[in-house]
Amino acid sequence: MYVLIDNKSGVPIYEQIYSQIKNQIISGALKENEMLPSIRGLAKDLRISFVTTKRAYDELEKEGFIYTLPAKGCYVAPKNVELLREENLKKIEDHIEQILQLAASCNLSREDILAMVNFSLEEKE
């Protein structure tokens, strides 16, 4: 598992840890039932507070990405297909919002945007 903290990003450290681990789980870089570093161990490696790392792990567990076995550690939870689908739908919605913002800056009409999407879909067939 690889986590990189960017102190200049303005994003809270626990959120950076949470999103990086979550993305590694979704992408398959972290496998089901794979053991994660201990909360204290990760905090030590990243030179951050134990509380910050615990908060990230708590969020991951609350959302079903990891599970904890008392006295054994934290593990990647088996993939919930519906949860992954929701995550991907959210990413699509975010991309669509970016497309709409770019289209507005270019004065593209709804028809222009739909034509571009249809063209891209036709190329995939």
Cα shape: elongated
Work out the oligomeric state of the chains in this entry.
single chain
Structural class: mainly alpha
Our estimate of the beta-strand percent is: 5-15%
Mean pLDDT: 92
Could you state the order of secondary-structure elements as H and E? HHHEEHH
Helix fraction, binned, reads 55-70%
Secondary structure topology:
Layout: H1 13-27, H2 39-46, H3 50-62, E1 66-69, E2 73-76, H4 81-105, H5 110-124
Protein architecture, described:
The protein has 125 residues and is mainly alpha-helical. Helices cover 61% and strands 6% of the residues. Strands 1-2 form a two-stranded antiparallel ribbon. A hairpin with a 3-residue loop joins strand 1 and strand 2. The model has no long low-confidence stretch (mean pLDDT 92).
Give short descriptive properties of this protein.
single chain; 125 residues; mainly alpha; two-stranded antiparallel ribbon; 5 helices; 2 strands; 61% helix
